[in-house]
Amino acid sequence: MGTPSLSPWAVLLLTLVLVGLWAPCVVSRQPNFIIILADDVGWGDLGANWAETKETPHLDQLAAEGTRFVDFHSAASTCSPSRASLLTGRLGVRNGVTHNFAISSLGGLPLNETTLAEVLREAGYSTGAIGKWHLGHHGRHHPNSRGFDYYFGIPYSHDMGCTDTPGYNVPPCPPCPRHSTAARVARKDCYTEVALPLFENITIVQQPVELGSLARRYAEEAERFIQRASDSGRPFFLYLALAHMHVPLAPPLPPAPGRGIYGASLSEMDALVGRIKEVADSLGKGSTLLWFTGDNGPWAQKCELAGRLGPFVGAWQRQRGGSSAKQTTWEGGHRVPALVYWPGRVPARRTSHALLSILDIFPTLVALAGAALPPDRGFDGLDVSPVLFGWSDVGHKVLLHPNSGAAGKVGEIEALRLAQYKAFYTTGGAMACDGSTGPAERHQPPLIFNLDRDIQEQEPLDVASREYQAVLPAISRAYAQALQDIAADNVSVADYSQDPAAIPCCNVQHVGCRCHGAAGATRDPHVEKRTPRLCL
Question: Has 79 been annotated as catalytic?
């Protein structure tokens, strides 16, 4: 007796059923995206990563309900380059952003670079940025001109302007002057002349910023944006770039005994993330991907106000002086916490050891949205959705680490990762808590560490060893190929020129650009005339 044949329609129906059974993670509609980027956060600042940390119950719950990535890296070890790479999927040697922009910068992320927000908005998304920008604020470099429908935040780091309540910093900074005749207090590394501005779109709504209420305002504006986008029926992309854990720290309440200022601030950040997760869940679990990570490692020179490195102490560098955290190419400078939460799609209670980067956010979200990458340029990030979904645990074969201020020319690639091996062509230490720095040293042949055995980067492989001789050709080949690929790419050049006229100022007639009126805002006619010239 022959096997009964199926009609074409029956075959099609059976195929659809099987696809539904075997591919539960295929996205049927455009998901919402929330990227939460913490500032200067340490890998060990999450209890899920480091048992000594007790202040992050909401983040730990996020890890339990999603996937934790323990070999995840920022694309640079300082603010502007890391953020530029997140929003372009390209290293600073390609996108042009190799070091931080100033309050008087005329330029920013080059205008020929396409941002993630621009791609997603073209794909039908509502796009919002809340928090720190630091990719240029003058003219067309403002977030509203870089693909974001809505912006609320500070255009650079919140230590780059004075406030009336300066918070905690090392060394402490004075409050803004209130009268033009007031004596200026000069402090190294403190901004004392111009107050810190808070923007809503292109309008300065508060200057100086009230730091104690900033976290609450960010959470409120994030909720409002999510609700507006949900009401519109469009998918949304929210880029929430927190002030935490960058100094100055301004926890809302005095810290409990034994927790310290840093612990209290970490708890505040944790609660903010928990609040955003609740809002996302209220839209219907499974409709929103939430990705939490950091822009670089802790700022060690801030002493007790700096984060926890976990095991990534860069012991080789510490023995020679200086910090092995922010601004360096040691693991403590660029290995950052990373959690992805997407109920029903990203596996819960999973730990991934895939080698991933903040560079991967751009191509991954573009793919999940059903959009296309911009043409005519190379990307350093990968679409890592198979890793997110638990189908694979393979990430980058090679990951490049650019110089970020501690040693070597900023932006240049002089450290790289190949599997478990990390090679340094240049080393150096940033300023440590004790004020020491580590001198720049060139290495030819490179220092090579086996991170599987030496996560503290304490003892490089012996150049004469069989292991070193076996891995050196592959590292040299990968390094040469990477540099060749970058040289052949369409690379951009950022404008780092400065002009005092580019400094955001809501009222030039008041000392420190202070605004008067309710909530710090002003309706003085000077504001309406001044703000568009600064920001449009």
Answer: yes
